[in-house]
Amino acid sequence: MATDSPYLAARGAAALLDLTDRGRLLVTGADSASYLQGLLTNDIEALKTGQGCYAAHLTPQGRMITDMGVMRLGDGILLDVDDSVTDMLRDRLEEFIFAEEVTVDDLSRVWTALACCGPEAAGLLADLLDSEGGLDAEQLQALVEYAHVAAKADGVDVVVAATSAFGVPGFILYLETEAGRVLVRRLAERGAARLSADDADLLRIEAGRPKFPAELGPDVIPLEAGIENRAISMTKGCYVGQEVIVRILHRGGGRVARRLVGLRFDDEAEAGVLLVADGGKAGPDTVGSVTSVARTAGDGPRIGLGYVKRELAEVGTRLRTVEAGHGVTVAALPFT
Question: Cis before residue 334, ω within 30 degrees of 0?
């Protein structure tokens, strides 16, 4: 259950979150951008140093392998992924290298990552970090998703990237592991609260942001999760899985069999629970499933995310959980 103070700090001040459950791959070499261009859904070749984007890696059938943050550093391209797929993704990227000048290195145990989020996060970071050209809160606030700046913390290099993962202004900081521990301590001394995983998940769910693998598992097409505007370039050349995406968008008018929606629960619920239409029965009447659940702040009601059939995805539609029969209402995203 989320505790009030860190959650409210993220909403009104600044809060910290340990991101050691994320993996970090650095792709370098003269062909790194063109190589990733054919494997990822977004326009990697268009990125200049300091820019970034959200992207996905798909199967040829257009299903999710993983999502990721992509950042064009001065000496390579940094991929931020869920740690559970780090080894698999590194192996896949290396598998397709033939004559290309590309190297893939796993920096997950060399660099750490932490998030600092909330309306006061930019000012807090600007006070603690140094940059050759100067670093101020307005500069940080102007960064779009995964755009980043190079800075230093007590002489140690830090990459500061913008993130919208928590529905509040936020930044991910990448730096050497030991320096990261020192920076966390200094941020906490300045009043940044430490978010729990439950607090972070509540913020994510309220923002309507799908997460790998809960909402972005191997059976999911990106269009079902509603991430196409963030993760997919509609103008770039070929990438793995593109044929399926284009067919849905242009021949099918963007229609998919199910949609990711917000859910408000009348009673207790948990991820994995199946849903039926109000009055329906389990089995052939099953219309969806719950993927994430969180209790709102102050021991409030539960909300969550889940997939339901397209025709039942309208806000206000009433559903029920299969076993307990508890009522569920489809809600607009983000939650308000």
Answer: yes
* Residue-by-residue DSSP string for 30-79: TTHHHHHHTTBSS-STTPPTT-EEEEEEE-TTS-EEEEEEEEEETTEEEE
Same domain, 133 and 267: no
Residue carrying structure tokens 């809600």:
331
Q: Establish if 33 belongs to a structural domain.
A: yes
CATH number of the domain bearing residue 163? 3.30.1360.120
Task: Tell me the per-residue pLDDT of 93-117, one tens digit each, with 9 for 90 and over.
Answer: 999 999 999 999 999 999 999 999 9
**Which of 157, 178, 199 is the last residue in one of the domains?**
199
* 209 touches 165 (CB < 8 A): yes
pTM for this entry: 0.95
Structurally, the chain folds into a number of domains equal to: 2
Q: What sections of the chain are H helices per DSSP?
A: 4-12, 32-37, 86-95, 121-128, 137-141, 177-189, 197-207, 222-225, 228-231, 242-246
pLDDT in tens, 131-159: 876 789 999 999 999 999 999 998 999 99
